[in-house]
Amino acid sequence: MEQYVIEMEHITKEFGSFKANDDITLKLKKGEIHALLGENGAGKSTLMSVLFGLYQPEQGTIRMNGKPVTINNPNDANALGIGMVHQHFKLVHNFTVLESIVLGHESVKHRFLKMDEARKKVVELSERYKFKIDPDALISDITVGMQQRVEILKMLYCDNDVLIFDEPTAVLTPQEIDELMKVMKQLVSEGKSILFITHKLAEIKAVADRCTVLRKGRCIGTIDVAGASKEEMSEMMVGRKVDFVVEKKEMKPLGTALSVRDMTIRSKRTGKNVVDHVSFEVKKGEIVCIAGIDGNGQSELVYGITGLMGIDEGQVFLNGKDITKESIRRKCLDGVAHIPEDRHKHGMVLDYTLKENLILQNYYTPQFDKHGFLRFDEIDKYAEKLIERYDIRSAHGAESIARGMSGGNQQKAVIARELDRNPEIVIAVQPVRGLDVGAIEYIHRQIIAQRDAGKAVLLVSFELDEVMNVSDRILVMYEGKIVADVKPEDVTIQELGLYMAGTGKGDAAC
Amino acid sequence: MNIIYFLIQQTMFFSIPLLIVALGGMFSERSGVINIALEGIMVMGAFISIGFINVFQDRLSGQGLFLLAFLVAAVAGALFSLLHAFASVNLKADQTISGTALNMFAPAFALFMARMVQGKSQVPFTDTFHIEKVPVLGDIPVIGPMFFQNCYLSTYIGILIFIAASVLISRTRFGLRLRACGEHPQAADSVGINVYKIRYAGVLISGVLAGVGGLIFVIPTSTNFNASVAGYGFLALAVLIFGQWRTKGILGAAFFFGILKTLASAYSGIPVIKDLPIPNEIYKMLPYVVTLIVLAFSSGKSKAPKAEGIPYDKGSR
Question: Where in the cell is it found (chain B) (predicted)?
């Protein structure tokens, strides 16, 4: 008889008529790393929210160590020793590490906070797992990898035994991912049990013992990771065979499309150069990928090129024309297409309908505007065309409110709008963030189609798989500088990781 | 020398209410609720408590009555601020609008009630609270005349409140949780803190302190209450912002404005200044003009709580 810490049986959770979880059974053994694999919208988060007490299931039972339990809120989960590292960290930026860890579990003496014991325990834990963390550092001053360690310490501080990691590797460098894997293995060797939510198969192969696959709210099955190949797992996840390597013809670069010369952007806050004398070119028919860890100046670089942020020094040329000081609309008309990093902030107006979002860039052209009045018939026609061509799915077609659409379809809408303008250069920042395998495949194919049609593409990505698969040339950014200019076939993921961490070989820097 | 003593005593009368009200605002805003209703709450606290003094001054007098009035002002402010808490926390209303509503309601209510009850809008009171000289302490050379002569009990209570507020926000469990709710309520919620409760508490504390602030602003500077605290609630907001939502900053800012205000009202009593060829109006404008200038320069690098003004909704991420 196997010993299970958590048994979730026949869990069904409905939102209206939509079944987010349909009769799902998940059993977590003591001392194992159990991966939960599925595309976005497969129901992983819902299932974990049920376990963490955020949702109440319509049907099903949860047992802990064989005894049935009810979990009505996160406090109940905590009391049972279930802890979670959320995908978006729950940390207060101006708290110290120590304050962040004790928040909610403070010990007090005579009504005053008592930090000494907490500090001792945190330092001990930090040493045990080689976290090298300074308890007095401010959250906003430490790296994302360190912040994740703070989240892990929060769980360990409360002596949790069941640890849920929600997509923990999305924000980490390859080296940090390796470290995290080591920590996870050490944790299970000490008797903790881990649920590991992800859609990255390589990581499952690396650490997980067993893996439960969800698709469209249903449980497809639980498998032993050792006996399954990546291909089998991805087929279970997507329901069909998936190409891991993106099909790509040989590139035939033509003349220079975009040229950035000596661009410098200073931070208003610290006065440091967040973009530090960066120069590079993107040729027509070429995909140039800017790799690097989030926060090394990539966003600002793109803001500088697209005009969302002023630049302090340097110039930007498009097809030989100086567009440095042009307005954003002028740049769009010149052929700059921008698929922004934050599609909610810069990509669309969430409370507009889909069709309104699709004409945000050209509502003022004669096609849609007659004497200052919008031509709704033309807008409808155009929207229908894009929806069909780019396969944008939503509940009410062109009339859907953008906020209610899934992330993948919002992104498709942005891409449809930007690419349909027939741009000279496509600047895409993290275009597949948070999307599932099917949507990723689709978007990558669109990007490559642009390049094959002789357009220039500048892609900013934090995901090395994407960088390696899609790009023709890779620039690595570290602390505002471009520290490497390499071709994907000449470099390994590990080498890229070193460049990204600022420890690359000097001979390749430019 | 006497002029300096006088100026310091006057500065206390102006600074202490600003300090207390701004500290109140700090608790509300660092829990995540913008409180521009400070002005309205001050009016309400002052109106009810001075009404209380007006009614009971025949039977009671002196510091006992003053302390009771404190309690009344605190309770009135707290109850009135509950409206703001209910609107901003439960109804998830726009906090600026809710605050504005309270600001408009309070003076109207005070005027209406005063006229209904006594036929005229001013509520008079007899000032039996003034302390000529504190025994023993008032006889200390230099310090005595500066801080322990011609003063009110409220000065010392205000300083106690400052110390208590500093300790509460930085050294207690409640303070830590309150700060978390103002910066990142989802983080607080994820560790089992009830964001709604904390925000209610924050707004209530601001109500108590603003109510008391209303009373102790009116007592030393007037002999009746006329449904107004002369924009002091808004000045306290400026103090809060200038003080960067931190206790020490607020202390400094409150005294900075207090000194300006003293200059504005007592310029004619200071020989050097009186002889300068500057029109009176300049001095009277000083506190308000400086407020504008200071805010224009200091709001750029603001350390405002990140989540203030955003109603917390458990469901949204």
Answer: Cell membrane
